[in-house]
Each structure stands twice: as structure tokens, then as C-alpha cells.
Automatic annotation (TrEMBL):
Gene3D superfamilies: 3.10.450.50. It comes from Rhizobium jaguaris. Residues 8-130 form the SnoaL-like domain. SUPFAM superfamilies: NTF2-like. Keywords: Plasmid. Pfam families: SnoaL_4. This is Nuclear transport factor 2 family protein.
Length: 143
């Protein structure tokens, strides 16, 4: 079966999903991060680990929220978003740049990319799966 073309509105909503995710992470908004995923979503990556479902994704986001609460500031920059319709949703790839500031020190983390599968659930686009690949190991140690 051939995947249907996506409307401009759907493409904008998918782009907004990435923005919601990035700003939620950067602001330490745990429930905002969790709300970007389906209940059974999978988040994988060398820097992120293996997280399956809302409870595991909530634990992942909480680690970063604690980092934020300690005075550190992350900034996710997501670019070159490519949306490809597929059966049941869309495949989305994007580049990732992340910077962080802590104690007056600024660092740019290793660049990377996302490979995601998104689905439209009750009128809202959500991550069904996200794979995060850094171009080399990251130096940020978030506990």
C-alpha cells in the first residue's frame, strides 16, 4: 500500500512536535517531554539509552530536568528536518546540535541526528520511535 501525501498542516504540526520536544527538554518540563510520545513509544540512542513507554521516558526526562534545576541550561537546535510519508504516519530525520551552559561555562556538544517515526493520534502528531545518534561520544554526564 502506498503512503498518502501529508498536508502542509501535518508537516507544520510535525515540525512543531520537534520544537515542543526541544523546548520541553531545555526548560526541564518532564510532562511536556512525555507528552510528545505515544504510550508505547521507544527512545533509543548511545547518549540516551533505551527507554520504552511513558514511564521510562519520564525517568529519562527527569534526569535532564534535575540537570536543569541545578542551574545548567541546555539548548537543542534541530535542523534539516525531512518528512517522508509512510504507512501509518511518517519517517522524520533531522540534524541535532546541542549546547549547554553551566557555571558560566559554555560548551557545544557533539552534533548528531534523529531518525524518528511519528504517528497522528487523536489529531496530534507524536513520536512512536526516536533514535538519537551522536557523531561521537558525548561529554555531558547527566544522572
Amino acid at each position: 500500500m502506498v503512503a498518502q501525501a501529508l498536508s502542509i498542516e501535518d508537516r507544520l504540526a510535525i515540525n512543531d512536535l520537534f520544537i515542543r520536544y526541544a523546548t520541553s527538554m531545555d526548560n526541564g518540563d518532564v510532562e511536556g517531554v512525555v507528552g510528545c510520545y505515544t504510550e508505547d513509544a521507544v527512545l533509543l540512542g548511545s547518549a540516551t539509552g533505551d527507554h520504552r513507554g511513558h514511564q521510562a521516558i519520564r525517568a529519562f526526562a527527569t534526569r535532564y530536568a534535575n540537570f536543569h534545576a541545578s542551574g545548567a541550561q541546555l539548548r537543542h537546535f534541530i535542523t534539516n528536518i525531512i518528512v517522508t510519508p509512510e504507512e501509518g504516519g511518517a519517517k522524520v530525520t533531522a540534524y541535532l546540535l546541542t549546547g549547554y551552559t553551566q557555571d558560566g561555562q559554555h560548551e557545544r556538544l557533539r552534533p548528531g541526528h534523529y531518525i524518528c517515526h511519528v504517528v497522528k493520534t487523536e489529531g496530534e502528531w507524536l513520536f512512536k520511535s526516536r533514535f538519537v545518534a551522536q557523531d561521537s561520544p558525548m561529554g555531558l554526564n547527566v544522572k
